[in-house]
Each structure stands twice: as structure tokens, then as C-alpha cells.
Design goal:
- The protein is α/β, with parallel strands linked by helices and about 70 residues long.
- About 25% of the residues lie in helices and about 25% in strands.
- The chain is built from two helices and three strands.
- It has helices at about 15-20, 40-50, and strands spanning about 1-5, 30-35, 50-55.
- The chain has a three-stranded parallel beta sheet, covered by helices on one side.
- The longest helix is centred in the N-terminal third of the chain and has 10 residues, at about 15-20.
Length: about 70
Amino acid sequence: MIHLAIFASGNGTNAENIIRYFSGHSLIGVALVISNKPDAYVLQRAKHHHINTAVMASCAFPGIFVP
């Protein structure tokens, strides 16, 4: 199986659409949602779908998160 990680820092509508799209897929699934903001609503959306979440400082991923 291919496990996807989604990097997000906001509301999470796009992330939730990706999670829904791959739910039930036999070969691909979203395994993790990572945010640089501990209060980003995307983390709640991921938890609602039983997706693991993590919060990491932006400096851990230079060039990925835009301040």
C-alpha cells in the first residue's frame, strides 16, 4: 500500500477531499496530516477520519511551509 502524508496549515477542505477520495482505496491511503499550526482545523478534520496527525515547526521543513 502507498501511504500519503498531507502538509497543511489551514482549514483543511482540500485535505479532507483528498482523504475522502482515497478512503476505501485498496492501494493508496492517507496515513498522516502534518501542520505547522497546532490550532489548524485540518488537524480536527483528519482526526474525524481517523488519520494520524502531527504538528511540527516550519523550520523542520524549509521551503514547504510559507509563513
